[in-house]
Structure formats: C-alpha cells, structure tokens
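job 3f2a | input accepted
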Amino acid sequence: MNCPRCGTFINDGTKFCPNCGEQISSQLQQSNYNQNNSLNMQNNVINDDELINAYIAKDVEKIKKGGFSLSTFCLGGFYMLYRKMWILGIGLFIIQYILSLILKNSIIILIINLILAFFFKKIYLNVVKRNIEKIKQANPNKSQNELVSICAKKGGTSNLALFGTLALILVLGAISGFLNNSQTVTLGNLSVDIPSNFGPGENNDLLNNMDVYGINEDDNYCLVSLYKVDKSKYNSIKDYLNTGIMKKNDDVLSDYKTKMIDGITWNSVTAKNSKRTSYHYAVIKDAYIYEVEFEIYKDDGDCTKAYSTVIDSIELK
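job 3f2a | predicted structure (317 res):
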C-alpha cells in the first residue's frame, strides 16, 4: 500500500511511513487487505464449464447436448469403460450376464443397451460434474489451468480399457468353450446339450421323430433319447408315458411329477428295473408330444453328471 501523505510505497503492517513519518491507521491497513483479498479471489475464479470440457474431451458438445447415444446402444458396457465409468461399466456387464443366464436369451442385452442409450449422456454428464467437484475439493489451492490439467487426466477416454476388456472377454469365451464338454442337439423345436463324448446310437429314426445318443464304456453306459410324436395318438401326457414305458414289463414307476424347465412345465416319471433306471420328461407343444428320456445302465459318476447337464439344458421353442 502507499502512504496517504507522500505516496511512498510501504509494506503491510507498517505503522509509520519511512519517508515522511506519517502514522498509518489500522483502518487503512484493513481496507488495503480487503482490496488485495478481493483481487486474489477474482484472479482465482474457477470456470466449471471449462473443467467439464476438459474432462469429457471427445464429443463434448454432443454429450452436453443430450439425446440418444448410438455408441451406448452398440457397445453397452464397453462404451462406459471407454469413458472411464469403471463401476457402472462392470456393473452393467454383471447384470446383463446374470439376466441372460436366468432368461436364457441374449436379447435382454440389446434391450438394456437400448434403454441406456436414451439416458446415457445425462447420466454421464452428472457423473462428470460430481467428479469435478471432488477434484476441486481435493485441490482447493490449484489454479484454473492446473485444475483443467487434472480434469483432462482423470477424464477423457481410454482405448486401452475398451480393447483390453474386449480381448479379455474373447479369451474367457475361448476358455469356456474349451472347458464346456457338451454339444447341442435338436429334434424339431426341442434342443438339449449332451456331453461331447456321447455318440449317436444305432436307433436313430430316419423319419426324424427320434434321436438317440449314448456312451458305452466299462463303467458308464447311458443313453439320451429325444422323441417327437403326434399327440393325436394319445389321450394325455400320462397316457403317452404309460404306453411307452410299460412296454418294459418289469418297470417300477415313480409317481408322476412336474418340473419347470426354461419356463415350461414338463411332466416327469422315473422307471426302474433290475438293469437300468430311466428318467422321462414329456410335454405337449402344438401338434406334438416331445419327450427327453435318459437311461442309465452303468454309472461311475459320469452318467449322473451327464443327466444333470441334459435335463437342465432342455429348451423348447
């Protein structure tokens, strides 16, 4: 500040002017402090819009404008990871994976992506604003240029995350395919997964209404049979099962039960005799009765495991 009498520059806190000896009042010192503080605050005003632009970087105007996000629809969680939205991206992958397993239909992934595509830009912009507030709170003494540099580093996009995640999924898919020792077989609208070591049996019907697959080893002998039969020949599912199973005269039948498989209620019954145990699952679909029969003659554990694989994989379109 300057001396009010002679104009000589004097340091803050000086009580007397070193040039003319004028006493410097406390009011003048306080006024000068307030002016300096006000100037400092003006020089350090933070422009949030500039920080947002630095954080978003690529396609910033499109994102701020809002609307449908084609990238989100096409890439889903990949695009979130590309935008460094780690938790939301990984969470989306997990949710879609669980739902696709439960519903056994990958179309759910496209439906979720479609919904997110309408809201992604708004969600992302809110995330950006929250992250910028955290950056400002963590760096209260940084200048505007310093904060811009921090936002640009924290935000932006990551090609490594995008292609790294894609590569990881491809690797995991390859490993899963290698470990998945099963093959899908179909008969009409019926499909099941059977172990890859099950070969076609000798009784495959040339009219495409019966397929048999099996394994016959020293300790494991079991068969999977798929049937597609005209329902008009039978009064009911129980009539069909009784007619088919009772051809083996020494069979002892269990009570009839129902089992929900892939959203469809199947009728089931178990037949046992001295040589084998057979499990029968049947349902009416349109003009046909579809049946999955699993017979176990010898079992060292592989047939029981195969039975679970087959029954749990039943699909009827």
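job 3f2a | DSSP finds eleven helices and eleven strands in the chain.
job 3f2a | closed
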